[in-house]
Amino acid sequence: MTHRKSKTPWKKRRRNCWDRLRARMLEVRRRRPADPAVSVAAQLLALFALIFGRMSVIPTIAAPAPYVPPPMSPGHAHRIETARRLGIPSRYVDIVLAQGTVPYSILFQHIRRGGGSRENAMSFLRTKAPEPSVDWLDHVETWGLWSVVGSTKTPTSSF
Asked: In this predicted model, what pLDDT tens digit does every residue of 89-115 receive, in sequence order?
């Protein structure tokens, strides 16, 4: 075989994998027309990548300072000290100073309410209640029978 322009014989070149890949890509491109939606999607993806790529990852808002409780007022400190000296919870200081003791109705109300007031009321009630009723209070606390505390009915269950 000879090349047209030159008079020297042309050697047939051996095809390699790159030539086969290039031929396959040209054939696929020739068969399939370009889809405009894919082109627009690729352009939008590039635009969003550019915009979001320039944004900082860490927000510029300063971190909030940790919570620091306000200093205790002198009145509150005096109230806690008085409660410690009297051996009572601090929520009952005003009542004890005014009446000399906490009425059972207030204690029962706090016991039925639950939470921290229940714990304070039960600890105060154990010191104030007569000795035979402490076993009954233990039973009520163990089984969670808070509705019978302070009611006018007597409990029907025996223990």
From this structure: 888 899 998 998 888 888 888 888 888
Residue 32 lies in a domain: no
The predicted structure's pLDDT at residue 74: 93
CA pair distance 139, 133, nearest whole angstrom? 10
The domain of 135 spans 102-159
- The answer to whether 87 and 127 have CB atoms below 8 angstroms apart is yes
Kindly state whether residue 1 falls inside one of the protein's structural domains.
Answer: no
Q: Could you tell me if residue 153 is inside a domain?
A: yes
Tokens of 131: 């000795």
Residue 42 falls inside a structural domain: no
Rounded to whole angstroms, the Cα distance separating 138 from 67 reads 39
Residues of the chain short of pLDDT 70, as ranges, are 1-11, 34, 59-60, 150-159
